[in-house]
Specification:
single chain, about 35% helix, globular, disordered C terminus
Length: about 270
């Protein structure tokens, strides 16, 4: 296997105040290969977002190793990361096209090339024809599609997604899961996707990294051997159920009797 694109080893994060210290992340270790879509799942408040912020260079860390990229492909966090948050965080006074172009403007990228890429990305996320709409004229799902296009405008090597569909209704969330898989396959980006939804983690990920309650510790790191393209019908299949039951158990949530004799064959 080639050198990992993301390498975390025994990473530790402590938040300090005047009166106390709070251990948020404890000895987390995992690798992500270039081009993977890896789900990071765990209970609310367990430290998933903290890990994303460490990777983005927003948070420092007190121990361990964090490496992104390689000697052959140097990594610059200011240019090589795109972030999608739970809320779209679009500028309400800027139209869709202008919102997508914002990172390119901040980075000082050539306008003509950025404009061409913005139109390409809006077509890719299904928003062709909505370039001149304001955020309030879009549905929640369309706003998140705009946010995804914005995160890709500067052609980042890594996309960090922090529960980007958590505020959407269930049907829109499932549609956005399908859209994300299509966009990922077309863009071939490396994506780290944070969620507390176990079924969502399994449905999206090439692998699922499981974290415990705070402080975040590694509970499991499993490959999801389900074919792409993935369809919603897969959620009714037995193999999908084996993965979800396995993850529920890791998080202390029993979901009835499972076929323990067959479960091992599904978990890598």
């Amino acid at each position: 296997m080639s050198e990992a694109f993301i390498h975390l080893a025994d990473v530790r994060k402590v938040f300090k105040s005047r009166k106390e210290e709070f251990l948020a992340v404890s000895e987390v270790t995992f690798d992500v290969q270039a081009g993977e879509l890896v789900s990071l799942v765990g209970p609310s408040g367990c430290g998933k977002t903290t890990i994303l912020k460490i990777l983005a260079g927003i948070h420092s860390y007190e121990g361990g190793t964090v490496r992104i990229g390689s000697k052959e492909s140097p990594f610059d966090p200011s240019k090589d990361i795109g972030i999608v948050f739970q809320q779209p965080l679009l500028l309400k006074w800027r139209k869709v096209l202008k919102n997508v172009l914002l990172p390119a403007e901040i980075l000082g990228l050539p306008h003509k090339e950025s404009l061409e890429r913005a139109h390409y990305l809006l077509e890719m996320v299904g928003l062709q024809g909505f370039e001149d709409k304001y955020p309030h004229e879009l549905s929640g799902g369309m706003q998140q599609r705009t946010a995804i296009a914005r995160a890709l405008i500067h052609d980042p090597k890594l996309v960090l997604m922090d529960e980007p569909f958590g505020a959407l209704d269930a049907l829109t969330r499932e549609k956005m899961n399908l859209e994300l898989l299509r966009i990922w396959r077309e863009s071939q980006k490396t994506i780290l996707f944070v969620t507390h939804g176990i079924q969502e983690a399994v449905f999206l990920g090439t692998r699922v990294i499981v974290l415990t309650s705070s402080p975040a510790r590694m509970a499991d790191n499993i490959s999801i051997d389900l074919p792409y393209p993935r369809t919603l019908d897969m959620k009714t299949h037995e193999e999908f159920g084996k993965y979800t039951r396995h993850l529920y158990k890791h998080l202390g949530m029993e979901v009835g009797n499972s076929d323990k004799s067959g479960e091992k064959s599904a978990i890598k």
